[in-house]
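User: Can you help me understand a structure? I only have the sequence.
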Amino acid sequence: MDRTWPRFIAAPLESRRLLLEPLRVAHAEEAAVVFNDERLHTYMGASPATFDQLRARFRRQTLGHSADRSEDWLNWMVRDRESAGIAGTVQSTVYHSGEHNDGVHLVAEVAWVVATPFQGRGVATEAATAMIDWLRRNGVDVVIAHIHRDNQPSIGVARNLGLHRTDIIFDGELRWTSLGP
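Assistant: Let's start by predicting it. Here is the structure, written out as tokens:
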């Protein structure tokens, strides 16, 4: 696929309390322990991944793009500066036009997961803000998140990020979006 926009590669990012490290396969061992909590999967319809499953997933994700190169995959492990432990993940899939189908808009579909001990502290909002600010500085003008209608904490994060609920349902989740800064 011929692209007229630059390739996105996850860069190290920082916020006041957090460090966002570009995903590495080596994160799998620590992540398998941190995310081994059924409660984290309530709205995702899956069980915690094993070390081997995470390692395989991280290998695919660290390619940085879809097979046809129409999407860039950006994934970060979020570390708490104080404890140096993994506090969560943020991710973005970047592509051109998407639902607008006009060849103009650069779209980022974003998601976040916060490890159980770090929930309720604003980690998702802070990490997603750092990621989205970086994406916008690099040309993204549409941000989309898909959130289960019962996931009140993630709905709160979406609102904190300035996203607005739409009536679009994608894979059983409501679409939240923002156009422009």
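Now, to help you interpret it: The longest helix spans residues 123-137. The domain at 13-22+70-179 is CATH 3.40.630.30 (Aminopeptidase). Let me know which part you'd like to focus on.
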